[in-house]
């Protein structure tokens, strides 16, 4: 039958992106997508905080398909280099960050409030992460932020626990406590209730401490609680990746 009917080859290539929603990515790559060869199709595969772009090529000439996909991937990499973090489904953001830290012989610690240890869980799911990941403190209650991370009580009173000031103090505190190159800190309202802050449910402050500075950014991740936690975790790792690449 194979001699009578030549079955087509079907090849796939998946590009992993973080930090930008499907509609915004589609707008940026519209011209490239419209000019794809007719034997290559693009699929958008979104999930919390990330978007996979899967190219599928179908035809009878396997070499042509391989070369066609690689050519289009190279073009795409020039259009959205700021959000591409890897290729294939197993190249997650935590894998990418781990490789960067390992190659640079640098270390990381996390101080998590609203993400409840989810960032540390992602990092330690990678075999060999003990090379670069020192540890984490889940500072869920204000007393833990104060007693374990040296966050000034007056800072919390003045700005509330859900603030850029507290997030940055948490990041500096865990970085100094564990003596690491980098640190991530999160604080926010994952919901479903506002609790004792005035911040909207879905609001998260993420702080990154680097070898030379500390900064934070405010995000709104919507609802429900699980989505907020997952999106905040992915965004924190994405911010860290960008900082490592700068240094």
Question: Any descriptors?
Answer:
single chain, 247 residues, alpha+beta, Alpha-Beta Plaits, Maf protein, 2 domains, 41% helix
Q: How would you portray this structure in words?
A:
The structure is a single chain. The longest helix is centred in the last third of the chain and has 22 residues, at 225-246. The chain has helices at 22-28, 30-34, 62-79, 93-104, 118-124, 142-149, 153-159, 164-178, 225-246, and strands at residues 9-18, 40-47, 50-59, 84-87, 108-112, 133-138, 182-188, 203-209, 214-220. The strands form 2 sheets. It has a 5-stranded mixed beta sheet, with helices on both faces. It has a 4-stranded antiparallel beta sheet with strand order 2-3-1-4. 41% of the residues lie in helices and 26% in strands. The protein has 2 domains: 9-87, Alpha-Beta Plaits; 93-246, CinA-like (Maf protein, Alpha-Beta Complex), CATH 3.90.950. The protein contains 9 helices and 9 strands. With 247 residues, it is α+β, with helices and mostly antiparallel strands. The chain is elongated and about 70 Å long. Helix 4 (93-104) runs parallel beside helix 9 (225-246).
